[in-house]
Structures are given as C-alpha cells and as structure tokens.
Design a protein that fits this description.
Shape: elongated
Order of helices and strands: HEHEHEHEHEHEHHEEEEHEH
CATH architecture of the largest domain: 3-Layer(aba) Sandwich
Number of domains: 2
Strand order of the largest sheet: 7-8-6-9-10
CATH superfamily of the largest domain: NAD(P)-binding Rossmann-like Domain
Oligomer: single chain
Low-confidence stretches: none
CATH topology of the largest domain: Rossmann fold
Largest sheet: 5 strands, mixed
Mean pLDDT: 94
Amino acid sequence: MGRALLEAVAHSTDFRLKSALERSDSPFVGKDSGEITGVRNGVVISDDVEASLSGCDVLIDFTRPEATIQSLDICTREGVKVVIGTTGLTDEDRARIKVAATKTAIVQAPNMSVGVNLVFSLLDVAARVLAEGYDIEIVEAHHRHKVDAPSGTALRMGEVIAKALERDLESCAVYGREGVTGERKSSSIGFATVRGGDIVGDHTALFAGIGERVEITHKASSRATFAHGALRAARYLVDKDNGLFDMQDVLGLR
C-alpha cells in the first residue's frame, strides 16, 4: 500500500508529498521515496514519526494498529488530519480514534475502495429484501502476507448486514466450521477466509435461499484502487476541523 500511495500522490495534481514513513527495521528507511515509483522526489523515507508529521496537513495511514495509535496521538497534538486504512483495530483502538476525532478530522474505514463502499450500500438493501429464508455467508480471500482474519472489509460487510437485519454480529457470527457442527442456525452470519499467493482482495456476500442464491462480489486487481480512495478521503477532510467520518460520508452514500 505504501508503494501504491506514493504512486497515486506522484500522479495527482493537488497533493504534495511531505514525508514518507516506514517501520524502523525496513530496508527502505533512508532511501529516496521516489526510487519506489521510479521518479526521485527528494523525500527520504524515515522512521521518525514526530519529525515526519511536522508541517503536514494530512497523514494517510495503512500500517498496523499499534503504529496507527502512536501516529494518531501525534496528529491530535500537531493538528494533522488523518485517513486511517489500517485493519485489525480493537474496540479500544476504535475508542481512542473516536476521542481523537474531537480534536482533529479523521476518515477511518476498513476499505478505501470506491467499489467496496458501494457494495456496503448494496448489502444493506439486499439484507432487508432477503431478510427471511436466506442463509448469509461471507467469503474473503487475500494474499499470503495478510496477518488479520477475517479481513476488516469482510467484518464490515457482516456489520452492515447484521445492522440491516437488527442482529448482533458478535452473537450471530460464525468464524469457522470443523467436524460435526450440527445444522446451521438460520440467524448465523458465516465467515470463510482464504489466504494465498498475491490475491489483492476478493469479497463475496452470499445470500442462499431455496431454489436461488444472490451473490454480491467485489474483486480488487490492484492496490491502486485503495490508494485513490484514500486520496479522495483526504480531499474530503480539507474543510473539516474535527469529526469522525468513513467512506460512506466521503462518497455521499449516507
């Protein structure tokens, strides 16, 4: 995602790269970030979060939860707006993001893709129409290096569907099946996870009824879609002083 973001900024007309951050043990630290995109830009990749954020308007963060929270504390102090695409966030992390949003403007979403966020809206409609007599399963696939499962996008799909059906996802979600599991409960929302190769991200919500099934699928073939969505989110924050928003707000789907 770092590479995709650098490329998106390099080809944009309204963004200027101020800093590029990596973890301390990254071999890219100390190198010109433009080497990654093929055009040197003089912005050296750093592991110094505080120094890198000084003078920035917005941070676009696709890292790990612990790094996101560290950066968030600095952003609230320095008045830097934040776009958070990090997944695997805990309830405590989300609570800290909500507090931070009283001091600065934040867009936080498990998936920055415009197409995926359209899918979220479609799922709300589908769940309401197919509320009775349809079993719901969510299947997601990602590359072998992804460390959290199910994906943040799959969980968000489940949340959207559960809310439309007035169910509590925490109590009705089934995250794995093995052995003699007994018959499927009609209120369950199942999740299946695939990890392998270089799959960028595939997500399908399956509504299986008697005699028919409805599948709503999104497949990402490039991380560029997430990067361009993140830039769109950053533009949305330009005139915002504080507040917590998501991609539904950015795209006017709410």
